[in-house]
Write a structure and sequence with these properties.
This protein is 45% helix and 16% strand. The chain has 211 residues and is α+β, with helices and mostly antiparallel strands. The strands form two sheets. A four-stranded antiparallel β-sheet has the order 2-3-1-4, covered by helices on one side. Strands 5-6 form a two-stranded antiparallel ribbon.
Length: 211
C-alpha cells in the first residue's frame, strides 16, 4: 500500500492555475491538485474582497517531495492548514462548525448592543435633532476651514490668498495666534483688504455661513 501525504491551504483565485503548473513540474505529474473556489459571502464578515480558492495537494509520502511542495505553497500569498486525521475528520468538522456558529451569535449580539448604544447616544433631550448629524456638520465645517487655509500660497515670509471670515478683529487675532503656534510660518499676520469698487468680491462666491 502506498502511503500518501497532503498539503491544504487557501490562495488567491488568480494564482490557482499557476499553483497547478508548479506542482505538476516539481512532481512530474506525481501529485494530484484539487481546487475549489470559496464563496465570497464567507469573507464578507472579514472585509476581504479578493476572490479566494482552497486547494488540496495529495502526493506520495516522502520528505524530499513534501519539502519541495511546502516551498512552492509558501511562495504564494495565502495560508496553509493542517488537515486532521481522516478517522476523526468528521469530529473536527463538527467542532469547527460549532465554533463558527458561536462566533456568529456573538457578532450578532455585539452588533445589536452597539446599535442600541448609538441610538441612545444620539438622543438629545427636549429636541428632535440628530446629535450625530450635528457632529458631522461640525466636522465638515472644520475640514472646509482647514482646507481653505491650506490653499493659501506661502511666498518667502508671506502667505497669499483669500478666505472668508465672519469674525471680528479680536476673535480673528485669537485664531491667528492658534495657527501661528502650530505653523512653521512665524509672525503670521492677516491684513484686511477693503474692496471699495467690489472688483474682487464680484468674482468670488461667498460660502454658506455656518455658525
Amino acid at each position: 500500500m502506498i502511503s500518501t501525504c497532503n498539503i491544504a491551504g487557501v490562495i488567491d483565485t488568480e494564482d490557482s492555475m499557476r499553483l497547478r503548473r508548479l506542482v505538476f513540474r516539481a512532481t512530474r505529474g506525481k501529485a494530484m491538485v484539487i481546487t475549489e473556489d470559496i464563496l465570497p459571502e464567507i469573507f464578507k464578515e472579514e472585509g476581504i474582497s479578493t476572490s479566494k480558492t482552497k486547494y488540496l495537494i495529495i502526493f506520495q509520502k516522502g520528505d524530499f517531495l513534501q519539502e519541495k511542495l511546502n516551498t512552492i505553497c509558501s511562495s504564494f500569498n495565502g495560508e496553509k492548514y493542517d488537515l486532521p486525521d481522516p478517522k476523526r475528520s468528521q469530529d473536527a468538522i463538527n467542532e469547527l462548525s460549532s465554533k463558527i456558529e458561536k462566533a456568529r451569535e456573538m457578532i450578532n449580539t455585539i452588533s445589536k448592543e452597539i446599535k442600541e448604544y448609538f441610538i441612545s447616544m444620539n438622543f438629545i433631550e427636549d429636541s428632535n435633532c440628530d446629535k450625530f448629524k450635528i457632529y458631522e456638520a461640525f466636522i465638515r465645517r472644520e475640514i472646509i476651514i482647514h482646507g481653505t487655509l491650506n490653499k493659501l500660497v506661502p511666498i518667502d515670509s508671506l502667505i497669499h490668498g483669500f478666505f472668508w471670515c465672519n469674525l471680528n478683529n479680536d476673535a480673528l487675532q485669537e485664531k491667528i495666534d492658534v495657527i501661528q503656534s502650530t505653523s512653521r510660518f512665524p509672525g503670521l499676520q492677516v491684513v484686511e483688504i477693503t474692496d471699495k469698487n467690489q472688483s474682487i468680491s464680484k468674482k468670488l462666491i461667498p460660502p454658506t455661513h455656518i455658525k
